[in-house]
Amino acid sequence: MKIVALNGSPRGTASTTLRLLEAAMEGAEEAGAVVQYFDVARHDIAYCTGCGTCYASGSCILEDDYADILAAMEGADGFLVASPVYINAITAQLKTLIDRMADVVHCQKFRGKYAAFLASGGGGGTDCVLGYLGEAWQVFGADVVGGAAAVMAEGEDRFAAAMDESRALGEHLVEAVATRAAYPEQEAFHEGMRERMTALVSAHRDEWPSEYAYLRSLGWIRE
Ligand SMILES: Cc1cc2nc3c(=O)[nH]c(=O)nc-3n(C[C@H](O)[C@H](O)[C@H](O)COP(=O)(O)O)c2cc1C
User: Fold this and answer.
1) Distance between CA 107 and CA 198 in Å, rounded?
2) Could you tell me which residues are beta bridge partners of residue 114?
3) Residue 141: inside a domain, yes or no?
4) Which atom of ligand 1 is nearest to the CA of 14?
5) Measured from the CB, is residue 126 less than 6 Å from ligand 1?
6) Partners of residue 92 on adjacent β-strands
7) Is 16 in the pocket of ligand 1 (CB under 6 A)?
8) How far is Cα 85 from Cα 122, in angstroms, rounded to an integer?
9) Among 8, 96, 97, 189, which is most buried by a count of CB atoms within 10 Å?
């Protein structure tokens, strides 16, 4: 089982969020997964220009580290995604990666995969991060397993508890992948996305041959 772990903090090994993520990664590894970690801010990832080439060809025209990270994500069974709170949101570095993924949305490429999220904030705002990341990965097609967060102002005991919660979350993610855990309320959302994306890509059949072929390969488009 493969898990891709992403940290959106620009602070490298000084990152507090990384401590939570490392606890979750350890939990996942102890439960039997192989984890591939990406320090997102240390990678060369350019802004999406909205050119739409990926819709047509299935790949991005920008030559940077995105293709390798996408390949790892496509090969993963699950995700641990982490960000500090930056003005009640995720960091720009992580958002820049996410914005490159519109083709993943159209093709619902993360269907059947699972995701869990981690956040740290100085005084609050972690719900904004966990909520946004959950929505993003659901829009990619993944099932959300849960989240864990630490607010630094709440002190060391609370941080220690958040570390324990992060480790348990990593284990829980692996269990969800292994058991193919079902979330009926999320399934209804995914079904709506399948219908919407099938209609969208069908309407652009001539401009987006790659996405059209992909959804046909899933059996979602039959003609
Ligand atoms: C640019 C910037 C914006 C921030 N915005 C918030 C915020 O809106 N709310 C908050 O509680 N903490 C905020 N913080 C504090 C960080 O979320 C907090 O220190 C976090 O633990 C840093 O994680 P890291 O060490 O993984 O980078 C901000 C920090 C920076 C540098």
Assistant:
1) 8
2) 78, 143
3) yes
4) 25
5) no
6) none
7) yes
8) 8
9) 8
Residue 2 predicted with pLDDT over 90: yes
State whether the beta carbon of 122 lies less than 6 angstroms from ligand 1: yes
Q: Tell me which amino acid residue 110 is.
A: F
pLDDT in tens, 128-167: 999 999 999 999 999 999 999 999 999 999 999 999 999 9
Total residues found in the chain within this entry:
223
CA of 116 to the centre of ligand 1 (A): 20
pLDDT band at residue 92 under the 50/70/90 scheme: very high
Q: Is residue 201 a part of any domain in this protein?
A: no
Asked if 181 contacts 78 with a C-beta cutoff of 8 angstroms, the reply is no
- Residue 124 Cβ < 6 Å to ligand 1: yes
Q: Note whether residue 193 is domain-resident.
A: no
Number of domains into which the chain is organized: 1
pTM of the entire predicted model: 0.98
Q: Which domain holds residue 8?
A: 2-181
Q: Rounded CA gap, 74 and 12, in Å?
A: 24
Residue ID of nearest Cα to ligand 1 atom 22 = 84
